[in-house]
Amino acid sequence: MAAGSPGDDGPRYLFDKEGWRLNLFGERPSDDQLERDRQRQFERELQAAQERWEGGDLTAFAEALRRCHWYQRAPPRWLVEASEALVEAATAEHEKRARREWRMHLTRWEAVTELRERRHELNKPTRVPNEHGEITLQRDDRGMTLDNVYDAVSEVLKNDEAAGGARAVEESYKLIEAAGGEDATFECYLHERRRRSKWRSKLGHSAPD
């Protein structure tokens, strides 16, 4: 029998001359036993990496990812959160601000788009009892004109981080539309924002819609 030596790339086993993994008694463990052992080893190594990460060792992040790859396991929640923390730390303040603004504009655009797409469905007459128990027909016409939509979205988002008046909602909607609408990306948004900024500087007023 020869000892396997994968080193840092995986767990250590003994092998017979045919290449089968052996237990301490020279017996071939079942596939289920091998899988349980493999899972326990993975959990131990990930726990060690997590403790190192929480102690401030950034290299533990890369080590944990390698372990997930080696054992073919999905990354645990702490590793996903660690990746987000690393990205956040590596992102410049001006980009963080730009991405917050992008999410704000996109949220407004999505709300306007949804209300416009559902306008005919929402505008169908609905039977609603009044305070006297009498049935009346009511319609939700907030999506029938863009002006109404901007007002409605402004009201809906008033407690959201994307809150803004009807004019701000309108500007966000037009900005994202110009950046590609449903196909808009952060990079497209930045390009459109720069284009409008140049227009403002050149003409001395807001960029054209």
What features would you describe in this structure?
By secondary structure, the chain is mainly alpha-helical. It has 2 domains: 2-90, no CATH class; 93-203, no CATH class. It contains 8 helices and 5 strands; from the N terminus they run E-E-E-H-H-H-H-H-E-E-H-H-H. It has a 3-stranded antiparallel beta sheet with strand order 1-2-3, with no helix packed on it. Helix 4 (93-117) crosses helix 6 (146-156) and helix 4 packs across helix 7. The longest helix is centred in the middle third of the chain and has 25 residues, at 93-117. It is flat.
Could you give the topology of this structure?
Blueprint: E1 2-3, E2 14-15, E3 21-22, H1 31-54, H2 59-71, H3 77-90, H4 93-117, H5 119-122, E4 126-129, E5 135-138, H6 146-156, H7 166-178, H8 186-203
Antiparallel strand pairs: 1-2, 2-3, 4-5
Helix pairs in contact: 1-2, 4-6, 4-7, 6-7
Structural class category: mainly alpha
Domains counted in the coordinates: how many?
2
Order of helices and strands: EEEHHHHHEEHHH
Q: Tell me, what's the shape?
A: flat
Beta percentage is 5-15%
Salient structural properties:
209 residues, mainly alpha, 2 domains, three-stranded antiparallel β-sheet, two-stranded antiparallel ribbon, 8 helices, 7% strand, disordered N terminus
